[in-house]
Amino acid sequence: MGEALKIIRADGVEGLTMRRLSDRLGVAVGATYKHVPTKDHLLRLVTLELYARVGPCEPTGADWCAGIRSFLLRFRQVVGAYPGMVGHISAHGTDPMPHRLYTSLNGTLRAVGFSPAGADRVVRVLFFYTSGAMLAPLAPDEHADADAEFAAGLDLVLDGVHRSLERDRAATA
């Protein structure tokens, strides 16, 4: 997995081929295919590795929004370091957020009082914003600090999430 990640980090998803990976590993292409049957399968494994690196959503005390913010910034940093991975995940129907990450974020939202439906809705909104921002980055000449722009937008979204908690509680009471 390490060599595949190095190739993607340097040359993007399009730069990863089974032949190139085999050359890096010093093995015949057939040997690579014996362990990983297709490039799509390899990219699925890469995706799972990146998600593992993101880790769980860990709320920080009473400020649960800060824990969610940290989680999504980490998601963007980890996955965004590998050019083309977000596009690949979106285009190939790979689960945008595996069960482990979903459960972690959803659990945080449920713990602070969101209903099951409300927590699901918030999870989707947060990942739509995060993935969308990664798929359509801001023009560097107009927005010199994309990280700051993303964080500012995330703060706006999280403000809305925080305000929606009381509405969600009232609707399910």
UniProtKB/TrEMBL annotation:
Molecular function GO terms recorded: DNA-binding transcription factor activity; transcription cis-regulatory region binding
DNA-binding residues (ranges): 17-36
Domain annotation HTH tetR-type: ranges: 1-54
Keywords per UniProt: DNA-binding, Transcription, Transcription regulation
PROSITE patterns named among the record's database cross-references: HTH_TETR_2
PANTHER family: HTH-TYPE TRANSCRIPTIONAL REGULATOR RUTR, TRANSCRIPTIONAL REGULATORY PROTEIN
Entry protein name: HTH tetR-type domain-containing protein
Lineage, opening ranks: Bacteria, Bacillati, Actinomycetota, Actinomycetes, Frankiales
